[in-house]
Amino acid sequence: MAASKDSQALPVEQRQTIFRTLVEIQDTGMGVAAARTEIAKRFAVTDAQIKAIEREGLEEQWPPL
User: Which residues are within 8 A (CB) of 35 and not within 5 positions of it... i.e. 6 or more apart?
Assistant: First the structure.
């Protein structure tokens, strides 16, 4: 499944940075919901955009996977 139109409006480099940061935050022990909230604040993106970026990052095996 491709990323949503909202997240596709962001450059791929920014989506990858968001994905990497999200994974790194979760690796510190922060829960998924709290990590998404933190990412939304840091990058000024919506929850829907974050979820689409998560799906895209997992499907494409973006680093740090």
Answer: 22, 25, 26
